[in-house]
Design a protein that fits this description.
Blueprint lengths: L4 E5 L3 H13 L3 E5 L2 H10 L4 E5 L7 H11 L5 E5 L4 H10 L3 E4 L5 H56 L5 E3 L2 E8 L7 E9 L2 E9 L3 H24 L8 H15 L5 E9 L4 E7 L6 E3 L4 E3 L18 E4 L4 E6 L2 H5 L5 H13 L5 H7 L11 E8 L2
Helix pairs in contact: 2-3, 3-4, 5-6
Length: 390
């Protein structure tokens, strides 16, 4: 590699100067010394790109120079030149890290030039690899720091999200609403809420935001804010009017589309009126179907509706049913379907019906029966159970 600096150390003036002259003619810069001590001093003063050194010299031999150079600069290529008949020194030099050797007399200097270029190219490659490795290590270190910060942010976000969920079951006359959320990540895209509307009715909903992680969790915060604003407005007007879940879904649909966040939500929401003994509910693309169990009969309740926040012209329909004196209504997000081992969707739905029919009608019993005692799941899973006892 022309323009590189070669330090030539040899006590034989004729040999040294002929090599130096050839290398300079080939474009190299050169430094020269006629013994080991002088050569080592030159190396310290002006570090060369490569050292070409005779092994047998007065004052300081080539092996001693090689050891010193290795201590000062382990990666500087070092080529030794030896007289015939002293191959043991050559072997020792190679063990100490010499990258090549030549036996005097060097008849063809082009071969020497080729060996020098190869050694310089290898040294350059080692240098580039080291720089690349150091750069990569720096990037990895930076990524680890950023990942740690992200995890801390997610932990903080999870605490905020958990605080937004109902902190305890809702007891309303002889009704009870309870829930459980199993997030797939720190933050969940599933969300539930329930609250009293007035002295004779309460509302509940289960929402499953598309996607996972922080962006979906932010939508759950938005849903919570929207529903609470609606509740405040409703109560500020006396809280007497009959609340229609379909109207709430229409409002959420418009509000989500206006945000332009590109997220949609599967929602099932209902209102229980204890005065009329009715449940009015509406579907917003929710699946699987909620399961109503009276002890005597266990079945899916029917309904249809498009996801919320996806279509401008989406409409939602209220369905009102009379409430049995004793029942449970179990609502699950679609993450449960990924956890069940059954192969087909029909088999999974049948299994859920059988589990509830056999008595898993509380959050703890259903969690145990479905194997949901885990900190994380492949997809967010939400359970909401409305129960009425006599």
């Amino acid at each position: 590699m022309a323009s590189s600096t070669i330090l030539v150390i040899d006590d034989d003036t004729i040999v040294r100067e002929s090599i130096v002259a050839y290398l300079e003619d080939s474009g190299f810069s050169t430094l020269q010394a006629d013994n080991g001590e002088q050569g080592l001093a030159l190396f310290k003063e002006t570090p060369p790109d490569l050292v070409l050194c005779d092994l047998r010299m007065p004052k300081m031999d080539g092996l001693t120079v090689l050891r010193s150079v290795r201590e000062l600069s382990p990666d500087t290529p070092f080529i030794v030149v030896s007289g015939a008949g002293i191959m043991t020194d050559v072997v020792q030099a190679m063990r100490l890290g010499a990258c090549n050797y030549f036996i005097k007399p060097i008849v063809d200097l082009e071969v020497l030039e080729y060996a020098i270029n190869r050694a310089l190219e290898k040294a350059q490659l080692i240098l580039e690899n080291r720089r690349y490795r150091e750069s990569l290590e720096e990037v990895i270190h930076s990524l680890k720091n950023n990942l740690h910060l992200l995890q801390e942010d997610q932990k903080a976000g999870r605490q905020v999200q958990m605080k937004m969920l109902p902190q305890e079951p809702l007891i309303f006359e002889n009704f009870k609403v309870d829930h459980k959320i199993i997030p797939s990540l720190y933050l969940s895209g599933d969300f539930v809420d329930y609250f009293a509307l007035n002295e004779h009715s309460f509302a509940f909903y289960l929402a499953d935001v598309s996607g996972h992680g922080a962006s979906s969790a932010f939508i759950t915060v938005l849903l919570k804010n929207m529903s609470m604003n609606l509740l405040k407005e409703y109560q500020s007007h006396g809280g007497r009017a009959r609340v229609k879940p379909s109207h709430v879904l229409n409002f959420l649909n418009r509000s989500l589309l206006e945000t332009g966040l590109g997220k949609h939500v599967a929602v099932f929401g209902g209102v229980v009126d204890t005065r009329d003994q009715t449940l009015t509910y509406a579907f917003g693309g929710h699946y699987p179907l909620p399961i109503l169990s009276t002890g005597e009969k266990t079945r899916c309740i029917q309904g249809r509706g498009l996801p919320v926040g996806l279509f401008e012209n989406a409409t939602f329909k209220d369905v009102t049913i009379d409430l049995p004196e004793q029942f449970t209504l179990t609502i699950l997000s679609d993450g449960i379907l990924e956890l069940l081992p059954q192969k087909t969707l029909q088999e999974k739905e049948d299994y859920l019906l059988s589990v509830i029919k056999e008595g898993a009608v509380t959050v703890s019993a259903l969690t145990e029966k479905l194997g949901l005692n885990t900190e994380a799941a492949p997809d967010d899973v939400a359970i909401l159970i409305l129960k009425r006892d006599k």
